[in-house]
Amino acid sequence: MILIALLADQSVINLAHVKQKESLLALREKEQFFCSQCFTPVVLKVGDIKIPHFAHKMLSGCDYSNEPESSLHLHGKLLLHQFFQKRHFQSELEKFLPAIRQRADLLVEGQTAIEFQCSAIPPNKVIQRTAGYLQHEIDPIWIGGLKNPPNESIQEIRLKAYETELFQRKDKNPYLLAFYPDDNRFYYYSNLFYVSGSRRIGKVKSLEASRQSFPFAVPKRLSQEEFSRVYVLFLKARQQFIQSQLFAKNRMRNPFWRACYTLQLDRDRLPYSIGLPFIGADIFRQHAVLWQLLALEAFKLQVPMPKLIESGKVLLADPRYFGEAVKLLEQYIEISIILTGQSDNFTRTLELLYDNYCNSV
Predict the structure, then answer these.
(1) Backbone dihedral region of 98: left (phi > 0), alpha (psi from -120 to 50 degrees) or beta?
(2) For residue 132, how many other CB atoms are within 10 A of its CB?
(3) Going by DSSP bridges, is the β-strand pair 139-145/53-56 parallel, antiparallel, or unpaired?
(4) Whole-prediction pTM value?
(5) Which residues, in sequence order, are CB contacts of 244 under 8 Å at separation 6+?
(6) How many Cβ atoms sit within 10 Å of the Cβ of residue 45?
(7) Burial level of 99, CB count in 10 A (0-12/13-18/19+)?
(8) Which letter does DSSP use for residue 46 in this model?
C-alpha cells in the first residue's frame, strides 16, 4: 500500500494531491504506474473502504512490498502530511533516501524524518533506522500509531519493548509521542516511572492537532498533586512485588530474601524508604524494591556502587548505562540516609521524592 508512484514519463504521482474518486478512476484508465523505489509495475486501487493506494502487482524484494501498511498508517501519514503543510513546512511524503536505503514516512524541511509506527517491530530495527538517519544529519522523530484513544490520567502504562525505542528525549525525562488519526489528536505518555518488565506509572495527556506546534510540544513536569497520585500507584505496585516474594522458593538464593536478612529487615513491613520511584530507573532491569535493597546491602557492607554493578547483582538494561546507574544508586543512598531514623512518614517521604523529581527533570 503506497501513496507515491512514478508514471511512464518518470513524473511523480502523489495520491495525497488527488482528492476526487472520479479523477483517480480516470487516471487509472489512461496511465501506467511504477514503484518509485524498485521501478516494478504497481496498480492503483480505488475502493470505498480503504484509502486509495498503489500496490505491487507481484511480490518483490522491494521494501514497500516487504512492509505492508494498514489503513491506519496511510490515514495517519496523510493527516501528518497535512499538519505540516498547513503550517507552511515543506513535507515530502514517503521520501526514499538512497544513501541509507531508508524510506521516511515524511521528510520535513529536508532534515527531520517522521516515522509513524503503527505495528510492532523488532526494537533493533528502530535503533538501526534511527542510526541511519543520524549518520546523515537527519533528525528522526518516531510517533506511535493508535487504533483507539487511551484514557487520560495518571495510570499504570504497559509499553512493548519497541515502544520504548520510540521515546523522545531519552537523556532526561523520556516520553512517547503517539497519534490517533480518527480524532486527529496527539497523545503523550510522559513522566514515566519504571516498575518492572513492561510496566510503568505515568501520565497520559492528549493535544488536538490544531493546537499542536512544530517542533512538537514537550510534556510539562508533574504537579505535586499529580506526583502524589504516581506515588500512591507506585506503592501499590511495590506491595504487589513484596507479596510475590513471600511465596518465592529457594529463599537462600533469592536476592530479596538474602538482602533482607543482611539488613535485618522484616520482609512483611519494609520501610517506605525501600521501593521509591525515580525517573530514569528503567536503566535497571529489576523492581525498585530489589535494586534499592541491593544498594542498601552494598552500602552496609561498604561495597562501592560501581563494584555492586560489576558483581552482576544489579542488572542493567544496557552496559552503556553504567555511569548513570552509579549516579542513581548513589542518589538513592543519599535519600535513604535522610529518611533513616525518621518514622515512616508518608508526607515527608512524598515531599522529599517530589523535590528529587523536580531536580531530576
Answers:
(1) alpha
(2) 17
(3) unpaired
(4) 0.83
(5) none
(6) 15
(7) exposed
(8) -
Question: HEC states along 296-330?
Answer: HHHHHCCCCHHHHHHCCCCCECCHHHHHHHHHHHH
pLDDT band with cut points at 50, 70 and 90 for residue 118? very high
Nearest to 181 by CA among 86, 84, 53, 83: 83
- Which of the given ranges, 14-18, 59-63, 111-115, 272-276, has the highest pLDDT on average? 111-115
Residue 65 CA from chain centroid, whole number: 26
Q: Taking the C-alpha atoms of 128, 129, 135 and 136 in order, what is their torsion angle to the nearest 10 degrees? A: 160
Q: What type of residue is 256?
A: F
Whether 175 and 169 have beta carbons less than 8 Å apart is answered as yes
Pairing outcome for strands 139-145 and 112-117: parallel
Taken as a whole, the chain contains a residue count of 361
For CA atoms 224, 225, 226, 227, give the dihedral sign. positive
Q: What is the DSSP letter of 319?
A: G
Tell me which residue has cell 503517539: 178
Q: pLDDT by residue (tens digit) across 192-234?
A: 999 999 999 999 999 999 999 999 999 999 999 999 999 999 9
Give the separation between CA 30 and CA 111, rounded to whole angstroms. Answer: 36
